[in-house]
Amino acid sequence: MCYLLPIPPNYLIIERIMDGYPFKEIESKWIQRWTEENTYSINLDDSSNKKYVLIMICYPSEKKLHIGHWLAYGPADTYARFKKMQGYRILEPMGFDAFGLPAENYAIKNGVHPATTTRNSVKTIRKQLKKMGAMYDWDKQIDTSTPEYYKWTQWLFLQLFKTGAAYQKRSPVNWCPNCMTVLANEQVLGDGTCERCDTMVETRDMNQWFFRITDFADELLEGLDQIDWPESTKSRQRHWIGRSEGSEIEFLIDDREDKIVTFTTRPDTLYGVTYVVLAPEHKLVTNIVTDGQREEVNEYIKASRLKSDIERMTLDREKTGVFSGAYAINPVNNRRVPIWIADYVLATYGTGAVMAVPSHDQRDYEFSSNYKLPQKWVINPSKSDEIPEQDSAYTAYGVMTNSDNFDGMDSKAGGKAVTKWLEERGAGRLSINYRLRDWSISRQRYWGGPIPIIHCPNCGPVAVPEEDLPVILPEDIENFKPEGTSPLGAIQSFTDVSCPECGKVAKRDADTMDTFVDSSWYFLKYPSVDFSDKPFDDERTKNWLPVDVYVGGPEHATGHLIYARYITKYLHSKGMLNFNEPFQKMVHQGIVTHNGQRMSKSKGNMVDPDEFMDLYGSDCLRLYIMFMGDFTAGGDWSDKGIVGIRRFQSKIWRLVHTWAKPLDDVKASNSSPDPELNRILNHSIREITADLDDFQFNTPISRLMEFYAAINSYSTNKALNKSFLKYAINSFLTLLEPFAPHQAEELWEIMGNDGYVFDQKWLSFDEKAIEQATVTIAVQVKGKLAGQVQSPKGVSEDVVMSKALEIPKVSRLIDGKEIRKSIYIQDKILNLVV
Ligand code: ANZ
Ligand code: ZN
Question: What atom of ligand 1 comes closest to residue 356's alpha carbon?
Answer without folding.
Answer: 1
